[in-house]
Amino acid sequence: MSPPFRADHVGSLLRPAAIKAARAKHAEGKLSAAELAAVEDGEIERAVARQEEIGLRGVTDGEFRRYAWQTDFLAKLDGATMVEAVLPLPGGATAKMMIPRIVGRLGFSGHPMIDHYRFLARHARATPKLSIPSPNMLISILRDWRQGVSADAYPRIEDFQRDIGETYKKAVRAIGEAGCTYLQLDDCNLAYLCDAAQVERAKARGLDPKALLDTFVGLINTAIADRPRDMKVAVHICRGNFRSTWLAEGGYEAVADAIFNRIGVDGFFLEYDTARAGGFEPLRFVPKGKTIVLGLVSSKTGAPEPKDALKRRIDEAARYVPLDQLCLSPQCGFASTEDGNVLTEDQQWKKLALVVEVAREVWGGA
């Protein structure tokens, strides 16, 4: 089976203590960049070996070299930088996060993550996967686009959107030329369009949800237009995962037809670990030939899901899309930022092993 695999995972892993210590020393000027990279190299090799030992057919570097799932990629695009912002969390709480700001014309002239991928590929026997933020993450429905984009660089949003697509097209082409055959685009905006409260706030700012959806579909399609023929691409849709919290809720009905039938990717990683993601009914829109990875195992908590309960939910999903188009994974990564979610490394590995065990029992095979 080509990716996505029956037992898969989104990508990020809890940062080992050695990496946290090395990053702290590097920030204090007590460890060189080369010494930090050497620590990361060793921990990535161990993480890859552990994923393969568990039985995963697609492996990642755990995003061990990143501060956060999106910032390290976006900040290295031409014309982009990162600034600190205070973002709202459920229940009235807030969190300081780094978000992108565009200060010049957007472009792609190389990226360190391509070398990160090459290192992963050299040390993996299983299929190496690279995850990067979706191009849509440069346009957040949570705030006005102008807040994150210099008026000198882009007086008009149409020019900005055009350059996002072209920049990502070059990036995906370069990633493919590095040998990547499994690419994942992580996207929150598609999930925000599933949230009635978020949509109403967007409308109050003068935004048109349908036009936004059209833009998001178009940007992804532009980004992958020049991908190599042997590259499989999946989109991961996330409702928020920072330190086990969340930002959006609501089922996929509002976007299902558009994303499944108009986005030209091979599969979708869908959050389904809680009722926040709604039911499986929107899966009726999935066409033949596309794979749905059911995120039924929570990466937010350490408590293991009962195997029988997971199998029942897979059976429920199979009422709307054939079983042979389904796969299983955690609903998100275990560490969207270096802070990580609220569980232990041992619980993390047990969750991944559970995914593999259930997938073997449901679909068979090694």
Would you write up a description of this structure?
The protein is α/β, with parallel strands linked by helices. The chain has one domain (17-363): Alpha-Beta Barrel (TIM Barrel). The protein is built from eleven helices and ten strands. The protein has helices spanning 17-27, 33-54, 71-74, 112-122, 157-177, 189-192, 196-204, 209-223, 256-262, 307-317, 345-363; strands at 58-59, 78-88, 94-107, 127-128, 130-133, 182-187, 232-237, 267-271, 291-297, 326-330. The strands form three sheets. It has a six-stranded parallel beta sheet with strand order 5-6-7-8-9-10. A hairpin with a 5-residue loop joins strand 2 (78-88) and strand 3. Helix 1 (17-27) packs antiparallel against helix 2 (33-54) and helix 5 runs parallel beside helix 8 (209-223). The N and C termini lie close together (11 Å). The relative contact order is 0.15.
Topology:
Layout: H1 17-27, H2 33-54, E1 58-59, H3 71-74, E2 78-88, E3 94-107, H4 112-122, E4 127-128, E5 130-133, H5 157-177, E6 182-187, H6 189-192, H7 196-204, H8 209-223, E7 232-237, H9 256-262, E8 267-271, E9 291-297, H10 307-317, E10 326-330, H11 345-363
Parallel strand pairs: 1-4, 5-6, 6-7, 7-8, 8-9, 9-10
Antiparallel strand pairs: 2-3
Helix pairs in contact: 1-2, 5-8
